[in-house]
Amino acid sequence: MRSAAFLVTCAIILTLIMSCHSSPSPRVLAMKRDAADSVVNGMKDKEQLDSLVKEAEKSGDYMLEMRSLQKRGRLWRDENRFMKAIACHNRELELARKLGDTIATVQALNNIGTNFRRMGVLDEAVDYHYRALHLGDLFSRRNDKTAMKNRVVSLNGIGNISLTLGDTETADSMFRAALKERRHSEATSDRPSTTQI
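Above: the chain sequence. Below: its structure as tokens.
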């Protein structure tokens, strides 16, 4: 009887430990994003990229699928095929959240916001850019170069929408904040790294 209780207790503890796993660190996620991007950037045409998306989905490689969809969505946007771009970026957003990747989540929100802005659906666009800005502000590593770049994209998106709506005061405020962030990012990247690997 005592050994059965011990086994049940061990099973419960093991279940709790497995269910309490933490998300990968921002540094690990950044390395995985970089590795996936090197594969994605090697794709020569849209057909290769579409095949990569399917292959990544089939194999369950969420990071590679997410980064492939990001690029594919941007290509659709460049062709003014905004609904296809939004579909890609919505899946990108879903995968970023599954991976617990704040940087990628902010990028996906900004991508969706940019698509809506270019379509002229400004209320949706500004909502996505503000969501990206807010989430980015909650990120623990705000001095991360990519996090700072994401913040600049969010601020510029909100600034462009405000300018389109004739709200020059908000637009000016957003553009000034974006410029300040960009300068801070450039100054930060000019310093020698003190991080040990």
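Residues 45 and 126 are 32 Å apart (CA to CA).
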